[in-house]
Each structure stands twice: as C-alpha cells, then as structure tokens.
Amino acid sequence: MKIITFGEIMLRLKTPGVERLFQSHSLEATFGGGEANVAVSLANYGMQASFVTALPANAIGDACIRELRGLGVDTSLILRQGERMGIYFLEAGANALPSKVIYDRAHASIATAGPEAFDWPAIFEGAGWLHITGITPAISEAAMQNSLACVKAAKETGLTVSCDLNYRKNLWKYGKKASEVMRELVKFVDVTVANEEDIQKALEIEADVHVESGELDTEAYKKLSNKVLECYPSMRMIAITLRESQSADVNGWAACLNDRNNFYLSKRYQITDIVDRVGGGDSFSGGLIYGLNHFSHPREALEFAVAASCLKHSVNGDFNRVTLEDVKKLMGGDASGRVQR
Amino acid sequence: MKIITFGEIMLRLKTPGVERLFQSHSLEATFGGGEANVAVSLANYGMQASFVTALPANAIGDACIRELRGLGVDTSLILRQGERMGIYFLEAGANALPSKVIYDRAHASIATAGPEAFDWPAIFEGAGWLHITGITPAISEAAMQNSLACVKAAKETGLTVSCDLNYRKNLWKYGKKASEVMRELVKFVDVTVANEEDIQKALEIEADVHVESGELDTEAYKKLSNKVLECYPSMRMIAITLRESQSADVNGWAACLNDRNNFYLSKRYQITDIVDRVGGGDSFSGGLIYGLNHFSHPREALEFAVAASCLKHSVNGDFNRVTLEDVKKLMGGDASGRVQR
Amino acid sequence: MKIITFGEIMLRLKTPGVERLFQSHSLEATFGGGEANVAVSLANYGMQASFVTALPANAIGDACIRELRGLGVDTSLILRQGERMGIYFLEAGANALPSKVIYDRAHASIATAGPEAFDWPAIFEGAGWLHITGITPAISEAAMQNSLACVKAAKETGLTVSCDLNYRKNLWKYGKKASEVMRELVKFVDVTVANEEDIQKALEIEADVHVESGELDTEAYKKLSNKVLECYPSMRMIAITLRESQSADVNGWAACLNDRNNFYLSKRYQITDIVDRVGGGDSFSGGLIYGLNHFSHPREALEFAVAASCLKHSVNGDFNRVTLEDVKKLMGGDASGRVQR
Amino acid sequence: MKIITFGEIMLRLKTPGVERLFQSHSLEATFGGGEANVAVSLANYGMQASFVTALPANAIGDACIRELRGLGVDTSLILRQGERMGIYFLEAGANALPSKVIYDRAHASIATAGPEAFDWPAIFEGAGWLHITGITPAISEAAMQNSLACVKAAKETGLTVSCDLNYRKNLWKYGKKASEVMRELVKFVDVTVANEEDIQKALEIEADVHVESGELDTEAYKKLSNKVLECYPSMRMIAITLRESQSADVNGWAACLNDRNNFYLSKRYQITDIVDRVGGGDSFSGGLIYGLNHFSHPREALEFAVAASCLKHSVNGDFNRVTLEDVKKLMGGDASGRVQR
Amino acid sequence: MKIITFGEIMLRLKTPGVERLFQSHSLEATFGGGEANVAVSLANYGMQASFVTALPANAIGDACIRELRGLGVDTSLILRQGERMGIYFLEAGANALPSKVIYDRAHASIATAGPEAFDWPAIFEGAGWLHITGITPAISEAAMQNSLACVKAAKETGLTVSCDLNYRKNLWKYGKKASEVMRELVKFVDVTVANEEDIQKALEIEADVHVESGELDTEAYKKLSNKVLECYPSMRMIAITLRESQSADVNGWAACLNDRNNFYLSKRYQITDIVDRVGGGDSFSGGLIYGLNHFSHPREALEFAVAASCLKHSVNGDFNRVTLEDVKKLMGGDASGRVQR
Amino acid sequence: MKIITFGEIMLRLKTPGVERLFQSHSLEATFGGGEANVAVSLANYGMQASFVTALPANAIGDACIRELRGLGVDTSLILRQGERMGIYFLEAGANALPSKVIYDRAHASIATAGPEAFDWPAIFEGAGWLHITGITPAISEAAMQNSLACVKAAKETGLTVSCDLNYRKNLWKYGKKASEVMRELVKFVDVTVANEEDIQKALEIEADVHVESGELDTEAYKKLSNKVLECYPSMRMIAITLRESQSADVNGWAACLNDRNNFYLSKRYQITDIVDRVGGGDSFSGGLIYGLNHFSHPREALEFAVAASCLKHSVNGDFNRVTLEDVKKLMGGDASGRVQR
Predict the structure, then answer these.
(1) Interface predicted TM-score (ipTM)
(2) Are F56 and F82 in contact (CB under 8 A)?
(3) What is the spatial distance between Cα C100 and Cα E63, in angstroms, rounded to a whole number?
(4) Distances (CA, A) of C13 to C87, C111, E15
(5) In sequence order, what are the residues at sequence separation of 6 or more whose Cβ sits closer than 8 angstroms to the Cβ of residue B48?
(6) Which of A327, A328, B24, C126 has the CA that lies 20 to 30 A from C66?
(7) Is B24 within 8 Å of chain E by CB?
(8) If you compute the radius of gyration of chain F from its CA atoms, what whole number of angstroms results?
(9) What kind and span of H or E run contains A146?
C-alpha cells in the first residue's frame, strides 16, 4: 500500500534543551510538519510513503529533501518552486511553563503554489491512501483550494482518505473560518483523527468535554464521535486522541476509535518525562494508518497508534524515530523501560 | 515606580546539564546574584529597575553589564572598581543527589568597596523602592556597613524597603554572626521575605517547623510570621516561602503572607521536573514587589509572586526569563503546560 | 585493603541527552565496564583499587588508562596487547522507550588474551579482595578460562572473592551456556551480588519473582537467597538488587542481603528522574565492598550500597562520581536534594 | 554626538564552524544587518548610537532588542509591528569555497512598514549624524520611500549623512533598478562608503578596476573617487574599501579616502585566517564615523576605520566586538598578535 | 549512466575541531569509506550511483543507510549481514602535527562476507560503470576474492572499470602482499587513479619522485604514468594525484592524466586552510568519473576532478558536499572565495 | 630521573574557538600553569614527574588532581589547603587580534601557603631535578619566599635546577620588583630558559633585540646569552626561545642554547595555523629537560625541545599532548603533516 501525504514541511528551529528562545546562541535545526511527520512514521515502519509539497529551490529545500529521503520517504513528487520554506520556532517548556511555537510560515512555497502546480491523477498513480490534515487548508487561500482538489481527486481515484482535523488558531488568516472549509473537506474523508478542540473548532460540533481540567470523561467522547459520524455519513471511522495535560512534562495519553460498529477506548499511558510532544498527534495518525493496514481488528490498530504516539513523546524532533519493535513491545504491555542489551 | 536593588552579582559557572563538576571540560558561564536577580525580574515585567553594585573594570565586568543591560536593567549606577568579580560554581543534582554550590566570592569588588563608594542620596534619586538581601551584609565587614548605610538612607529618603533574609551558612566569615547584623538591618525593612531557616538563623526567632521532613505545617508558619512582626513593629508585612524538597527534581512550592491584617496562604504548586531552582527565592521577591505595586489586594501580589517563582524552576540560569503573560496565565489557574501555538 | 577487579572495560559511545542513535552527529565518548566501574567506585571512596584487563597499545587504550588513573584506580597491572578495545553504543530512552545497548565487543584484547597473559600470584600480591562479574566469562572461551583461573588463584591466595552474576543474554556466544560456567565459578565466591534474572539464568535456580510486573515480593527474595546459599556452601553471603522498572525514568531501587545469619531488606528509594542507570548494579557492588570493609554491621554495608547505587542513577556515565559524603548523607536519611551551599 | 542608523536587522543563522548548511543539526543564532552593525560599532567605542527599524512584536524581536541594548545601542526608537523578522542563512566557506548567504528577508517588518511609521523629526531630535546603506532601499518599495524620506529629513534637520552604497544583486526585486534610487539618495549624502562594484552598480559610474583578479590598482581608485565627487557636488568625501579576495580565508584589506583636498591610501593588511568577513564593510563605516568625530585629520580617521575593520575579520558574528584599545593598538602598528597578559 | 561502487563504509569517529583523541568526551560520528565517498560525489552531482557493501543488521547499519540514501545514493543493493561495521578514529592535526587514523575495521561485515554474498550479474544490471579501490582487497581474504570477482564480472558485462589504487600500509594483514593482488586486479581496470606511493606499493613500479620533500617533479610523473600504461595494455588511462604536503593545513594539490594520447597536467591549487583532507582522493575519483561522462575533452574531466577535490579540503567529513556549481566556478578560474549573496 | 616542579596551577577558562569573552555562554574549563605544564610534558614522554603546589580542598582542586594524575603526573606531594584556586580567563585571538589573558589568581592557595607548608628535604627525596619558573615568586611575598627556599634546598640536596624566567608584567604586585628577586633566585639555577624580554625584565640585562619587529637577529642572542652566563657563574647553560610573532595565527619559532662551550641555533619552524600558543614556552622547558636527560648531545636536546614546543602550538590547552614519536618525527625533519594511517 503506497500512501500519499500532502501538506507543508517547515524548518523547525528549537532552543537546545529547555531554554527560552535565544537564551543561548544556538538553535537545533530540523524539519517537520503534520503530513510530513505522518509520511516519516509510515516509511519508518516499512511502508511506501510519498510526501507531496512545494519547496524552494535552494540549499534549505535541498537539506529538507535529504532528511526525508534518508528516512525512507519518497520525495520524487516534491515540487521545487516558490520563494521560501516556512519556519517554526520552538521554545521548550517544563512543568507549568508551556512550550511555545512562533510560526513564520507565511509566503512559503506551499502557501503560494497555485492549483496548476499539482497534477493529482499523476500523483495518485499506484497509491492506495491519502493523508491530509486541517493545517494545509489553513495556510492560504491557494493551499485551501489545493487541499480540496486533493481530497476530491483522491476520493474519485478510489483512495482511502484520512484527515487529522488539527485546528490551529493562529492560522486561518486569509479570510475563511476553519469550519467553512473543513466541513466541506471532511465530506471526502474516510478516516478522521481529531481531538475535542479540533472537532469544536473545525467542524463546529460542540464537545461536552473540558480540556483545561486535565481530566477525562470517556462517555462524552463516545457521544461526540457519534455526533461526527452522524453528520458525515461517508466517514467510516473517527479516532479521537485524549491528551490530559498535567504539565509540560506530564501528560496522560490515550485515544478512542468509533468505527460505527464499536467504540473502542485504548489503554491509557501516563507519560511522566516528556522529551518532545510536538508531532505527537501526527505519530498517532501514522500509527493508525499503519495499524489499519496491518492488523485485522480496529482495536489493534488503535492500540498500535496509541503506543506509537506514546513513544513519540520520548523522541526529540517532529519525527517519530522509534522502531516497529518498540511499538509492538509497548503495545504488548511492556512499558517498563528496562535497558535492552 | 523605580526600584533600586543593591548587592553582589557573580559569574555563575555551571556544569552542562546534570553533570558533576569537570566531568566534561565545559562550563555554562552566566551571571547571577540575589539582588541582581530581583532587578532582572522587575525589568522583565516592565518595571524600572536599577542594580547597584561594584564590578572590576575588565572584560568580565563588561560582559556582566552587557547581560544586565540587555535584560532591561539600568546599569548606570554600577561602580567599576576593585580587583575581581565573585564566582560561584554550580553542579546540578538530580533525584536524591543535591545540586552543590562552591563559592569563590571573597575579595570581590563589592566586598572590598568602602563606605565612600556609594552616594546613597544620589542613588535613590527618583526611586521609590529599595530591595536588599541578607547575602550582601554576609560578604564582608565593608559590605555589611554599606548594607546598613543603604537601608538607613533608603528609609530616610522615604523609600519602601524590602529584604530577603537569605541566610547562607558558608558566608558570615568576617567575624559577625548573621543575627548580630540582620536584627539591626531588619529594623529598617517594610517588606520581609524569608524561609523558616532564614528566620531562625538571621533573626534567631525559633521556628517550630521542620524543613528536612519535606512536609508542611501551615499553622506554624502563621505563628512564626506573627512572632517576627511582633519583634519588628515597623515591618509592614512578611512573606515566607514554603519549599518542600522531595528531591532535587521534585519540590512543593507555596508561600504565605502576613500583612498584620491577614495571613494568606497561597496556592501550592507541585513542581516535578525542576530545571533550575537557584534564584527561585529571588524570583519570588521580584514577583512580590511587582505584585504589591500592580495589584490592589495582597493576596493577588502573593499569588503572582508564587506563580512567578514556580515558573522560575523551569528556567535555566539565575534569572527568571518568563513573561508577564506566563505568570498571569499560571496565576489564573492554567498549569497544564499545553503547547502554545 | 587493596582490591583487585578483573574484566573488560569498553569504549562507551552514547547519544547526547535522550537521542536516538545518530539522530545528531555527536557521541559522548567515555569508558565503562562492570569490573572497572567497581574499581572506580572503590577508588572514589578512597580505597586502593587495581583494575586488571588487557587493552590495545594505541591511543584509545592510552585514553582509557588516563581516565582510570585520573579517577584514582591503579592501572599498573593492565596489559597492553591485542587488536582492539570493545565498544558499546548506548541510546538513552525515556518513559516507555527503553535505553538500548549495541555491543561491538567481539575480538577485544581481553577476549583474545590467553591464559599465559595473567600471572595471578603476582597480580594478587598485597591484595585482600577480588571482584569479578559474570560478564567476563561470557565474552570468549579464553576470557572464561582466565576468569576461572582468576577466582581459583584468588581463593588459594586467601583473598575474599566477590562476584556480580550479571547475566547478559547477548553474550555467551562461544559455545557454553552461562550456567555451565557460572555454577563452577560461583563455588569460589564468598560474596555474591545478583538480581533475580541473574540467579535464574546463571545458576539455573528458579526464582518465583516477576520482573516485568514492576512489583516487588520480598518474601520470595528471602527464599531465593536461601536456595542459593544452600547450593553453594562456601558462599558467605548473597545480596540481591531489587529494581522495579516503572519506566526508563522511574525506578524503585532497593536490595536485600542474606548472610546466613539474617536476611536484611534495605530502605527502598523511588528514583523519579533517572539520569543514567547503566552501571547501577556495579555501583551497588562497589558500595557493598566498601561497606563490608568499613562498617561493623552487614545492614550498614547493605544500606551504604543501596544509597550509593541510588545516587549513581543521578550521574551520567558508567562511573559513580558521587562522594563518600553524598552517600553517607543519603544513607542517613536526607533524600531531600536541597541545594548545598 | 548622537548617531542614528536606519535599516534592517536580521536573524542570522550560521552553520557552526566551517560546515555546509544542515551538515549538522545546529545553527548559531545571532543578529545582524548593515546599519545595526554600524550602530553596534559606535556604541562599542563609547558613542551614543540609536538604531531605527521595525521588528515584529514577538519573542524573536524581543531577543534582538535585548542583544542590541546589551551592546549599548539605544533601542527606544525601534517600532514593534509587522509580521516577521528577516532571516539570513550563512554557510561558512574555506579556501576556494566561498561563504554563501541565503536571504529569507521578504515580508519583514521593515519591508512592510509604511511612510507613516517613522516620524523623522522626532527621531532626529538631539542627533547629529545619520547613517544608512544601500541595502534598506533595496528591500521593498516602502523601504525605499522611507530611506529617501529619511535622508531628506536628516539633511533638512542639519545632520551629517553617511551612506554605504552596499549593492546587493539579490535584492532590488520590487521593480526599481538600484541606480534609479541610489543616484537620487546619494544627493543627500555627505560621506559615502563603497567598494568598486557598489559604485558601478548603484551609481552606474564605470570603474576601471577588476575585482576578481585579486590585484589592486590604486591610481584607478583615485580616478574613480574623483568621478563620484564630480557627479555629486554636495558629497564631502568618499571612502572606497579595497578588498583583495585571495581565498575565503585570506584577504588583503585596505581603503582609500578622497575628501576633495587629498586622496589618502591606507595601510594594507594581509589577513590570513579570516574568522568571519560578514560585517567587514559595516565595521569600516562604523570606524570611519568614529574616526571623523574623534581625530583631527582625515588620514587618521581612515586608518582607524581600516584597522577596525581589519580586526572585524577576527570576530565571529556581524558585530565588531573589539575594543577601542584593540583598534588603536593595530592603528599604531602592532599587528603582532602577541598574547596580552 | 548508472555507476556501481563496491567496498567498505565505516563509522568515522573524529575528535571535534583540532583535538587529540579523547581530549574532550565528544566524538563526531559520521560515515565514510573510499568507494562510498565516490558514490556520494556522483549522486551529489546528480548521477545515479549505487553503493554495494555489507552492513550489520543493527541501528548503526540503519543509520549509515539513512545517511547514504539521504545524500541520494542508491542503497538497495546493500546486504545486511555480519556482525559489525568497521570503525575508524580520526584525530585532526594542525601545522606539523599530522592527523592520525586508528583503524578498528577487522571482522566487519564486508570483510567476512563470502563469495556467495554478491550476485554480480544482478548487481550490474542497468549499470555502465564500476568503481573500486585498492582498499577493499586489502581488508581480508574474502574481500579480496570478492574484489577480483567483482572487476572480472564488471569487465565481462561490459562496464567501464575504474580503480583508485589507494595503498594502505596498515591493511594487507591477511597474508598477501598488496602487489600480488593489485597487479592482477588492475588487468581489468580501464581508468586508474593513484598517487606515486600507490603505484610503487600496489604495482611495484618504481617512481622517481619524492613525496616527503613536498616538491613536485612533473616530468617524472609523465614517465611513471607511461610505465604503468605499458605494463597494463588494456588500461585506457591513468590519473595521478599530486599532493605536496607542506603541513597539515597547507597542501599543494594538482593531478595529471595520461590517456595514451596525451599527458595533461592540471592547474595547481595552493590550499592554505585545510578543513579535512580525508576523502580528498575519493573526491578526485568521483570528479573524474563525472568529468569523463560529462565533458568532451579529457583535460576538462581532469580539471573538474582537481577542482572538485580541491574544494573537498574545505568540507568536514569524508563526503564532498560541494555543489556542481561550486566545482564549475572554481574550474572556471574563480578561486577568490568571495561571499556569495 | 624523577623531576620535581613547583608552582601554581590554575583553572583555565577559555572561550570556545575564536570567540570574545562571553560572546557565547560557554567556557572551556581545563587546568594549566607554567610548572604544571612542564610536569605534564615530562610525564607524557614517560619520565617520572611530580608536581608540588597547594590546592583548596574542594571539588575544583579534586578535579585538577584527577586531570594531572590521569596525565601521569605524581600528585601525592600536592597540599590541600587555602581558600581558592587561581583562575585565568583566556580569549583566543586571530590575525592581528591578540589572545588576551585576564588573571584572577590573587589569594590562591599557593599564594597564601606559608614557608612551613613545604618540607623540601622530604619533597626532594629520590628526585634528581627541580624545575621552577619566574611566575611563582611573582605571585605573592609568601610564594616568593617559598620559591627561594625551594631552589636553595634543591641545590643543597644536589638536584639540577632549571628555571624559566617567565616575566609577567601583571604579577609582581606585592612590593618587589622582578629583578630584586630573580637575580637572587637565578644564582641557584643550572639551566635557564628565557626569552629576550624575560632577561631584560627579570635580570635587568639589556638585550639588543627587538621583539615587536617580528624579525630575528641571531648574533644578538649569542651575545645576550654570553652576558647572562658571565653574570651567573654557576649557571651551566641558558636556552633562549625565539618567537617571531607575525600574527596571532602565524609565528616563527626557534631557540638557541649556550652551554658555555658552544652556541647552538635550532632549526626554525614557521607555524602558520596556531591552535593555542599558551604553554608554548613550558613545552620547550619540558622538551629541554627531557632532551638533556635522554640525548648525548646538547644540540639534540635543543632540537627536541624546539620540535616539541613547535608541536604544542597545534594542541588546545596548556598541556602538550603530543607523543614522543610525534616530536622525534618532527625533529627528524618530517614536518609534512601527512595523514598517518
């Protein structure tokens, strides 16, 4: 199964360790972005994954391609055009001090690429799955149109379409509300991934759950997922990630999956020493796509996805660099962290 | 309101990460010291803060001034004289292994500066508040005399005087006991900050509280603060910080404030992944001074101070580099540490 | 009391911080290995410790000797021969993601050194104690024969012999099962250190305890230790380390000691922010040997050993770089981690 | 004498040491830009320098202000508006491999700030000198208009105006040729700084000198400077920097000054181990402004400027962090580099 | 044209900057090896290059593949077998102090892979060129046999075969003299690359040239190349690299090419600030193969190869990370190292 | 031959690479000092060397001892007393910008140790050589008296005494002129090492040589050395180091030796890429002592010393970490810097 993911990848400039921005004069420079992170997860588990984006034809774009290609992602469909690569600055928090992201992603190649840039039928040749997130349509008018064209073409070509709603309040600045776009886009989606805020903001479906409290009410999530599935009849399933944010270092992590037949609630992991939670949701989507394609039962796919994304919190950088064996071991119940030698 | 703080700033040489001293051949070189840390906190929140000290006229003193000035502290009152800058070496602990400080601060410019060095009336021109700590008079005979002259002059000029008792058992080596000096100095203080050990050692007022246990007895602190206020009739209020040291990484953190009208006990924070607790008390003093000058109710000032100093534990270095918004957000109840983007 | 330890020391190449292997292009290069770690612990506490091994006559072997000598270990008995130094790569985990060790230790000087290389009577001159582990006989046929020769000679010379059974499933590749060798070797041992898995795998004595669960059943350990002492009548005592692996960062840590007269269970430490647990067991052995030679009661020796190895978890690198005062302070009950200044 | 400099400051992201971009995952993050660099030089020599620009109201803009303020530059006139800060990536070369700059400076706050943003009369209050470069008008239509308004207002207010022509072929993308703008702007300039390429490209005055050859023809520079002074009758003097680029590490460095009375050729320095030549020209301008304000003879001002900028090649970063004493020592003939202790 | 290169790639562990081994506790960890370096050069210039080797099936082998794949090298033909990856330690010298290499490459996967491991006809499918060096047959008996089988199969399949003689005195330890093997292997080579020492040691053809002197005698090289071509009638051409080692930082660099029709002597480069000269020869081979396939005249191919390898001396790591444009610019005569912006 | 060296060792805090002090927030922390550097050189070449000093009984002193002991120096004679260790800050220069040293060495343990601290007869037991420098008597009155007592006792005990005059203008602040002391001390010296400035300032013997010029006049050095030998009849020989400081990176380096029989002028080395010249003179003294004890002819000793110290310029840190083989290879004429593999 060849998977296409479409969206933005940014230069990620992070302070070393837990430092305030420019506290020292050094920044970690890696790459990351929702859909790229999913592609890396899939390639990492051995699947064929191709990432579609636009990158400027300069040394920074070259480096990004080297990084993705090294990690096994097919980069042959990446366009080289436009004037710049989006950047995000990341300042790592600790305890009650949150990590902070500063976006500098306007005018990026992917934001300015017009509809003529992507030949969707050609791109989808040989592919069986498309993954997109709610970030791409939030970037610019053009990216929004490309996103819609993308999912429509995918659906027409017969691909399974998955989408992480991924609401970002600091995007959506080009004149559309998130819900105006996402409610249209989701009509073409088979597998939805979201958290409660995404559903509220992107689909305007009210969630009776309270994020800030740090507590978890399972029943509410069941109802919420049913509501979404009712609204979108062609949607086959929805997974909701359940993050309890106790501090910047300590999170509860779980997810549920509603496939219209059943509502599954995953094992819950208490993560006490978060290394990096950026990309956590993407690692869930990557795990879910892998799981749905490799396990016979949805519960297993869900558990794989939750275990995979639990482990992502131990890895610095957007990309989930754990092995298939790591995930399966945790999924199998061994969370002991004993040294392997 | 312009605030003057008077005391020592040292070159802080810390091992990288959690390393034993000289385990690697690299040291982090920053600056810090009780009163300077308070000045940085205040400038950081947008107040006018001027730090008064003496620094040698060499490249190390220059760098220290650059650092303070960059952080918004007025450095125009700093004297350039004497032979050296004090140094402290810091080895970061973890779990049951404590962080360790080695002082190399004898013979520093601030310790050798005589009474003629500081023209207090000129220094206090335009200022409304003076902050000092019990460290400055502990350094040397000369620094002790300057400290006393400073608080007296401040009081006479009509400034509000705050003092963090800050007892350090490895100082006070020039022939005076802490209590001999501090009991005199405190007579000129309006706002006192202390912990239970400071009160015992600097004021020789017995505290019925047990630090080593890691447990907290609120009632005892109420009594203790009353005792202090009784001894010092001109003192307007005393704040006591309540640290429960469970390990080098895990501390409970709270404070109480007795303003003669009421005894306030703040919210208690459980800090589970301490990044750096040096300067924690100073960030409380800074927060308290800010709070008393910006909130109408002492309780708010206390809660601001506790939230500010709670966040300091997430910041490497003596200085509290969190924003006013960070503090207000935590003070408002959001300790979730959720990524801000 | 001069102590001899015999075994392998490897070049330890660790990823910086919590990174996957080669995530960045930097590796921390230090040295470590079971018996060397014990020698460092002992020298660190002020005892005379001499490490016996074989190292190649090149700049890497030189550096290793410099490191050991600097830490106070006598290196004058180290042979310089053979073609290479063993290497182990260490990737640090976090949360549910385990640390991982990749060994590249085949063909090391210590593995290829023949029986003629070591003149045991000369080596043991002036010494009163020998420490060895189950790793050395696991490396190669030659190392196994040297190990047996070593303990026999030590016993004949009248040294006290201690052995950490230290079972490593990825070693023992030269054609012998661990138990074939270790059941012979242990006959010459006075003081045994082990965990439950070691006893099962190295001595094939069944333990009714379940490691993976993360829970601790004291009674079972008493029975287990009795079983071992029954099997090996000349063994004077056995200490069993009790690690509850809750995650890569969080471990419970305790130990018990059975000296045929009594069964002692140590204080239990909850370590919540592990810096490095490699070498933890060795720091226990080092602490135990120190303790048995410096305290009048076995319980004290046990508590010293557990406190010492508890503190090791706060130190990066194989070697336990804490001071005698650090250990005694923790042993005395102060686990508060309060800054020392 | 208070000096105003107006222009852009960028986030400078440089590869560590001599590395290709993203060869490792780390970037040095500092700040720099033509006019800011001049302000830093002047503040560094003890003059009053104020830098005027627009920066976004985020943590990156804050850090930039902290850096400038720390170095003694007045930042009180900096506007906080717009969406982003310009960035430049710098890859350091060696030998025949050139250093390379990738600009990502479009859409920066300074490029989008309209004419209403700057109240020139208020800005120039108390100032005696304005410095600008040919980079600012090259950024955008708006920045060009602001540049012209700036120099006109400065001239009207009676300030001395200096300008480094600083031609950059990768800018000037908004629809104007450099010469269209610069020939107008230069009419208001008293002191011009340039190299031969700048004069050709910005003023379209043909230079009979050949840069690429690495050789120097003094007579041609005399003629060239005369030509410029003839074209611009209100220009008081022009300085031309003479760089012989022998390799990325080895440059000859000198300058000449034509003040209509005399043509001065400076001492020539052979710089054999360039640490960082970015900002070299700016350090010359800074030195020249200092020199013209502190020395009685133009020759001295020129020699000071050349010595200052020679030393800049030994300093990493855009800013010239050498002392006044360093410059005067070199100007006095001591280029021996002997250790000072 | 698809190029196959066959040989070893090692983990390269280099001291940071110019440090003695283990002076600090950090090592740069990259990958490199003669034939891999050539493959990287070719992929870097946009050619199809596939590297054939054997790597262990562990995380270190994985990382190596990620690195090569990221740089555009086809890694699909790499075998995963054997027990370890070869390592070389590199200590960088300066001035009269040489860089030093310590090999730890015995028992590597490529050294132990038997003849059955490589299916040469399958490997060569679609390929037009094979490159090998004299290092591979020097590693082990098995590697030697594979090398011979490889060149024979390549020749039979009609590929052009190039070989860098690359004599290493510390290899060839399995019982054969270099010349015994290389004189046989070279019979199948079309394009030979060598330096004077290689020819002497690998082919036992006496060179009347003196390396240690640091001086260059062109005529002697002409004679020497003619001698080689006489001995090996099927060899189409030989290129000899001419390094004048003046110090660890300063080298003259040039090469000559004898294609039986003409003897070409390249431009000579004086490299004064060497960043890393390891891999210099390989970058020449890579440049030559590129040149012979893209330029119509051998002289151009030679000049491209010399310019490419001249630039390699400015790049840290075994791999030549300069662009095609960099090489063409230098080849075109611009060695000025002027900043590109 | 066991050699004693007596003097100060300091904590050396150097900026990373070529950085201005505190340009980044990191400092390299190593140790160094004239007489310690000589001891390290000697131990490094395999001689028995014992360093005598006083160090504070804290973790910094411990680390210093670990470093020296690791490098093979006997540290058993080091006293642990006093309040602090001297520190020197080092800012590395380049080109015309000099390296700068800031001393913070007042009040160090070695400066405050009184005459009762050192039991010279016990210290000299078994030793054959004493080395001291002109730095030790320059530190303090007490250190001066200890220095004189030391050389007198050494002479009485029959040791050969060597002394590097090492004039430091920023020391000698306790009330004596250098010459007052050194002219007395030198009376007990057999082997003197100096440069022209040392001789002028420490012995007040006028040298007709001009340092600043960067040129070398051999004849003048011959005369100068004769003058010294005439003044001090018991001096057996004097070696004068001849440094031509062309820039911070480029130095000529040579030395001459006058043993009353002959005047030897060594080979001259042009060092073009200095890594670290601090400790260069000490490495010469170390080389000379080794040479005089291992070569039959003074010329060889001189050439060994010059080659050794030439190589020191390629090593970061005060200590000369090159091998005996490195020195002998250079002494033998191979300065080519060719990679050794």
Answers:
(1) 0.94
(2) yes
(3) 15
(4) 7, 20, 13
(5) B1, B2, B3, B42, B74
(6) C126
(7) yes
(8) 19
(9) helix A141-157
Contacts of C55 (CB under 8 A, 6+ apart): C9, C61, C64, C65, C78, C79, C80, C82, C85, C109, C110
Beta-bridged to residue A27, according to DSSP, are: D27
The whole-angstrom distance between F17's CA and the closest CA on chain E is: 9
R_g (Cα) of chain E, nearest Å: 19
pLDDT beyond 80 at A213: no
User: Tokens in use for A45?
Assistant: 């588990």
Q: Kindly report, residue by residue over C212-252, the tens digit of the pLDDT.
A: 555 567 888 999 999 999 999 999 999 999 999 999 999 99
Return the residue in A15, A22, A25 with the most chain F beta carbons within 10 A, the one to mutate for interface testing. A25
E24 chain-B contacts, CB cut-off 8 A: 24-26
Find residue B340's DSSP bridge partners.
A100
Residue-wise burial string across C245-261, b where 16 or more C-beta atoms lie within 10 A, e elsewhere: bbbbbbbbbbbbbbbee
DSSP per-residue codes, E315-326: SSSSS----HHH
Concatenating the DSSP letter of every residue in B235-294 gives --EEEEEEEEESSSS-EEEEEEEE-SS-EEE---EEE-S-S--TTHHHHHHHHHHHHHHH
Instruction: State how beta strands C237-245 and C251-258 pair.
Output: antiparallel
E strands, A40-150, are 48-52, 54-55, 79-80, 87-91, 100-104, 129-133
Angle subtended by helix axes C280-294 and C34-44, to nearest 10: 40
pLDDT tens track for A129-151 = 999 999 999 999 999 999 999 99
Q: How far apart are CA D268 and CA D284, in angstroms?
A: 14
Task: Tell me which residue of B236, B267, B88 sits closest to B163, measured CA to CA.
Answer: B236
How many beta carbons lie within 10 A of that of residue F229, not counting itself? Answer: 17
Instruction: Say whether A35 sits in a helix, a strand or coil.
Output: helix
d(CA D332, CA D321): 19
| Rounded (5°) CA angle C243-C245-C247 | 150
Residue B92 is encoded by which pair of tokens? 């970061």
Helix (H) or strand (E) holding E307: helix E298-312
Helices (H), chain B: 34-44, 59-70, 109-112, 120-124, 136-139, 141-157, 178-185, 196-203, 218-231, 280-294, 298-312, 324-331
Query: Which one-letter amino acid corresponds to residue F23?
Result: Q
The one-letter amino acid code at F91 reads E
Instruction: Pick left, alpha or beta for residue D172 (phi over 0 → left; psi -120 to 50 → alpha; otherwise beta).
Output: left
Hunting for tokens 């000289």 — which residue is that?
B22
- Alpha carbon of F181: minimum distance to chain D alpha carbons (Å): 21
Q: Tens digits of per-residue pLDDT, A245-255? A: 999 999 999 99
Distance CA E68, CA E74 (A): 8
Please state the length of chain A.
341
Q: Which range, of A70-74, C94-98, E209-213, averages the lowest pLDDT? A: E209-213
Tell me, what DSSP letter sits at residue C115? G
Taking the C-alpha atoms of residue B13 and residue F138, their distance in angstroms, rounded to an integer, is 28
Assess C96–E contact: CB distance below 8 Å, yes or no: no
For residue A214, the model assigns a pLDDT of: 52
Is residue B188 a contact partner of residue B160, using CB atoms and an 8 Å limit?
A: no
Q: Which amino acid is at B183?
A: R
Is the entire prediction scored with pTM above 0.90? yes
Interface test with C, best of F44, F66, F80 (most C CBs within 10 A): F66
Q: Which of F112, F235, F101, F248 is nearest to F168 (CA)?
A: F101
Summarize chain A as % helix, strand, coil (round to 5): 35, 25, 40
Residue pair A242/B332 in contact (Cβ under 8 Å)? The answer is: no
Instruction: Collect all residues of chain B within an 8 Å Cβ-Cβ radius of residue F28.
Output: 25-26
